[in-house]
Amino acid sequence: MSDILLKYMKLGYQYLVNHVLAFLLIPTAIAVAVEILRSSPARWNSFAIDPIHILFTSFLAVFIATVYFMSKPRSIYLVDYACYKPPVTCRVPFSTFMEHSRLILKDNPKSVDFQMRILERSGLGEETCLPPAIHYIPPTPTMDAARGEAETVIFSSIDSLMKSTGLKPKQIDILIVNCSLFSPTPSLSAMIVNKYKLRSNIKSYNLSGMGCSAGLISIDLARDLLQIHPNSNALVISTEIITPNYYKGSERAMLLPNCLFRMGGAAILLSNKRRDRSLAKYKLVHVVRTHKGADDKAYKCVYEQEDPQGKVGINLSKDLMVIAGEALKSNITTIGPLVLPASEQLLFLFTLIGRKIFNPKWKPYIPDFKQAFEHFCIHAGGRAVIDELQKNLQLSAEHVEASRMTLHRFGNTSSSSLWYELGYIEAKGRMKKGDRVWQIAFGSGFKCNSAVWKCNRTIKTTSDGPWQDCIHTYPVHIPEIVKI
Amino acid sequence: MEEAKCSRVKVESILSVVSGKPTEPGKVHKLSMLDRAMGSHTIHIVFYYASNPFLDGPMPSDLGNLRITLSELLDEYPYVTGRLTCEPDNGEWLIKFNDAGVRMLQATVDATIDEWLGSADGVEERDLTAWEEMPNDPSFWSPFRVQINKFKCGGLALGLSCTHMHTDLTSATMLFKAWSEVHRRQPPTHPPIFDLPPPPTPTPPPPTPSPLPTTPTKMATATLKFSPAAVDKCLSQAPADATPFDALAALFWRRVAAQAPTKRSLSICVDSRDPSQHAPAVPYAYFGNALKFSTLTDDLLSGGLGQVAGHIHRHVAGMKKEEFSSEINATGGMYGGAALTCFNAEHMAEAESGRGIMYDAEFKKGERPVHVSYSVGNVGREGLIMVMPAAEGGRGRTVTATLPEEQVAELCRDQVILDFEPTMILCGRRS
C-alpha cells in the first residue's frame, strides 16, 4: 500500500515540476481573462492605444523574432544510415578461433588458455566475422589485404546507403571518414572520392587514431560544418579495419583486442536541407564530448606499443573499467542538465545541497535517465562495459538489449557498433516518432562521447539491413560462460 | 633410380573454411567399430579439371568464389566440420560437432596437367592432397582437408583428403559431387544421411596375426586405364555373368600371385550401398564407412582367369546376400594388412551409361573432370587394387594398384596385362 502511495507521490511530483510553467501560466491567463471580461466596456476605452505604441511594439516583436531565428543553430537531420553485413564465409566460430590460436601460439599454451577464457566470457556469438586475411594460418595482414577489406566494407555500406536514400555521388558536399588504426596514403576518404567520382570541391576529412568513440566525433564535426554551410549534406563513414592490427605476439594484455574486435562499418547521411526534414529518420539534439586525457592514467589505459619481442599491439590496462566509469560520470554531469526533466534535476540538486550542508553520508542521487530517453545505444566494447553501464545508470535488461545483441551477433565493431545497435532497435519495430535515443561511446584517450537523437518519424521494419535475416532469432540468452 | 627430387607442388597458404550457418552446439556422433578399424588408413581423391571453374563468380579471386559454395555445402555436413575426441572413461572415439571447419590449402604445380599425368607418380601425387598425421590430441586437428592446386596450363586439381575413420571412398566422392551441385545451384541428388540403425554384431576379431615386419615397405602406385574393348576381351574369358570387377580382379590377382608366390589369399571389399539391389543394406546417401570385407582362400584362387573370375563373382554375390559375415581386423590395416585387397566399385558406375559418378562432379556445366585419382594411405604390404569406373562409360575401368615398389614395377612390365593395352598414367617417368 505504501509502495503504491510512494509511486503516485513520485509521479505527482514529476508531473508538477516538469509542467511548472503550465501550472503558473494557465491560472494567471484565466485570471486575466476573467478580469477583462468582468470589467465594463467603458474601461476598455480608457486604455489609450496610441498608433506609435503599436508600431514600436510590432517592430520590437519582429526584431526579437529575427534575432531568435538567426541565432538558432541549424537543425541537423540524420536522413538514413547503412551498416555493413559481412559475408558468411568470413564467419569465425569459437572453435575455429581457438584452433588457429593453438596452431599459431603453439609455444605459449598459457596465452592460448587466456584467449579461451576471454572468448568464453566475452558475450560474442558464433556468427561474428573477421576479414579474409586473418583466416590464414598464420594470418597474412598485407597492405593489399587491408585496402581490400577497407574497400569491401566501405563501398558496400555506401552502396546500401545510396540505394536506400537515392543519394547521387555528385550531391555529397562533406565527407568524413573515421578509421582509427588503418591510415594509408592516399587516405580512405580519398579512396572514396576516387571510387565514386565525387566533386572536386568536396570537403573531405579523414580522422584516424581517435579510437572507438571516433564515430561520434565525426558526427560532431559534421554538425559543426553543417552550421557553416547552408543547404548541404554530409556523408560520415565509421569503421575499423581489422586486417593490419592483428597482434602477432603472445602478451596477454595485448591479445584481448584479437578476441573481441570484428569486421564492421557504417555509412551515415546527415543533412541540414529543408527538403530532407520530412524524410529524415532522426534529428540531432546534442553531442557531448568528454576527454580525460589530461589524467596520465586515463591517457595510458588504451596504449599502442611494442611488446618485449617487438610485436606491435594495443595494451589495455587493468584500470580500464574504473577509468571508463570516471569518464562516464563526467559526461553525465554535462549531459544531465541538457536532457533530464526538471524533476530529476531538482532532486539531484536537493541531494547535492543536502550532502554538502546537512549530512555528507546521504547517498548521492543518480538521476533516472530512463525518463529522458526511450532507447540506449551503449558502445558494445565488451560485456564488462555494458554490465558496468547497466549498473551505473540503473537500466533494465530491455534497455541494454540492443547493445548485448549487437555484441553477440557482430562482436566489437568499434565506432560502428552504435549504428548496428540503432539498427537492432529499428528492426525490432520499437522506434516511434518522438522517441529519444542516447548513444554513448568510449574510446582511447580516454574519451567518453554522447549523442542524443530524436526520432523524426515512426520507422517501419524493412527487409534490408544487417539484421534482416536473424532478427527473429533475437533476443538470445547469453550465458555467463560459453563452453567451447 | 630416381633420387628424392624437389616436388613440383608448392603449398602457398593454409586457412580454414567454415560453414555458413552455425552448428547446433552439443551434438556428438559415435564412431562404429568398422569406422575405428578403418582408422589407420587415409583417403586421397584428386579431381583434375581442364580449366579453373572458380574464376567466374562474384568475388575477385577464385579462392573467394570457392569458399562461398564450400561454406554452403558445409551447412549440410556438420560431421565434416567437427573434431575428433576420445572419451576418457571408455576410450570411445566421438566426433564433436563443434563447427570448427575444414582446412583449405592452396598450391601451385610447376607443370601442365598433361605433363603431370604422364610423369608424376603416386608419391608426388600425394602432394596434391598434402596430409598431416593425426596428433595425440586431435581436438584442434582437421580430419578433412581440401586442396586447390593450380597448374601452369590453367588447369586445376581439387584434392580431398580425410581419415578413413570418418568416411569411405564412396561417401567422400558423394561429398565432392554434392559440392559441385551446390556450386552449379542444382538441388542435391543425395542429401546425406549420418545415422544408421546399429549394424548386427560383427564377428569377433580374429586372433592377433603374426607381428608385421618392422621395416616399413616402400609402396608405390600405378594407374592403368582399360578401355571398354579391353575389358570385354578380359570378360570373354570369364563366365557370362561376371562383372568387369570380377574379371579385372582375377587378372590382377593372377599376375601379382605369379610374381609373389607367397600370396595365398585375396580379400574382397564391397560397399554395402549397392543401388542395384532391391533392398540395399545401407542407403546410398549414407555418409560414413559402409564396407564389407571377406577373404577368399587359396583353393578358390588357383586355376585360369575364367575360373578365378567365376569364384570371385560368386563370392561377391554371397557377400551382398550377407552369406559371409564381415571381417573386422581390430588392430587396423584393413587394406592390404593380411591379404591383397581388391576394392569393388561397381556400385559407383551409373546404371545406364556405366560412367563413374565421380565424373559427374561438374563445377561448370559441361566440364567433367579429366581424371579422378583415388589413393589410400597406409596400405599394408600385401597391397590394394581398386577397380573404379571410367570417364568414358560403358565397361571401361581404371585400375589403381598400390603394392610394394618392385611389384608395381613388375606389374607395369607384365606382358599379360600389357596385352590388354592399358593406358598408364601417374606411374612416374617410364619409357
TrEMBL record, chain B:
<dbReference type="Pfam" id="PF02458">
    <property type="entry name" value="Transferase"/>
</dbReference>
<feature type="region of interest" description="Disordered">
    <location>
        <begin position="187"/>
        <end position="215"/>
    </location>
</feature>
<feature type="compositionally biased region" description="Pro residues">
    <location>
        <begin position="188"/>
        <end position="214"/>
    </location>
</feature>
<dbReference type="GO" id="GO:0016747">
    <property type="term" value="F:acyltransferase activity, transferring groups other than amino-acyl groups"/>
</dbReference>
<protein>
    <recommendedName>
        <fullName>Shikimate O-hydroxycinnamoyltransferase</fullName>
    </recommendedName>
</protein>
<dbReference type="InterPro" id="IPR050317">
    <property type="entry name" value="Plant_Fungal_Acyltransferase"/>
</dbReference>
<comment type="similarity">
    <text>Belongs to the plant acyltransferase family.</text>
</comment>
